Amino acid sequence: MEPRFDLFTTETGSRLAKRFAGLGQVIDRSPLPKLTRELVSLRASQLNGCGWCLDMHAKEAAAAGESAVRLALVAAWRESTVFSEAERAALALAEEGTRLADAAEGVSDTTWARVREHYDDEQVAALVALVALINAANRLAVIVHQKGGSYEPGLFAAVAEES
């Protein structure tokens, strides 16, 4: 499957990328832990089949000190022992927020209660926005067949600084 279109070579695509990066910076500056942000982004990207975002967030997580074992187990987080209860709550929110069409209730009350047990209001705001943003980014990249493999850690942050 070849890339269909290079979104970022257009003026509109470039402007969108800068806005996405700017929103990402707001989330990055929040008190939501960096590694939690990367795990959530990885899980949503796995569910959506987004190679570009998987590449980006795996490399960003590794650069931030995440272990290879935890990165490998994100896809099976329920069946592993390496994630904290707070991370499990965030991963459950990521899954339910990504699979909205799969459940009549969207995000379950149980998952929401677990999130609220582990995260304060500022962190919840960042977590909810992150789930929405990564899903939007996944859709952009999947639609145009943007490939993973070439991302370098820090690249997206550099785009945000240009805006």
UniProtKB/TrEMBL annotation:
GO terms for molecular function: peroxiredoxin activity. It comes from the Bacteria. Gene3D superfamilies: AhpD-like. Residues 17-96 form the Carboxymuconolactone decarboxylase-like domain. Signal peptide: none annotated. Keywords: Oxidoreductase, Peroxidase. PANTHER family: 4-CARBOXYMUCONOLACTONE DECARBOXYLASE FAMILY PROTEIN (AFU_ORTHOLOGUE AFUA_6G11590), BLL7811 PROTEIN. This is Alkylhydroperoxidase. It comes from Amycolatopsis mediterranei (strain U-32). The lineage of its organism: Bacteria, Bacillati, Actinomycetota, Actinomycetes, Pseudonocardiales.
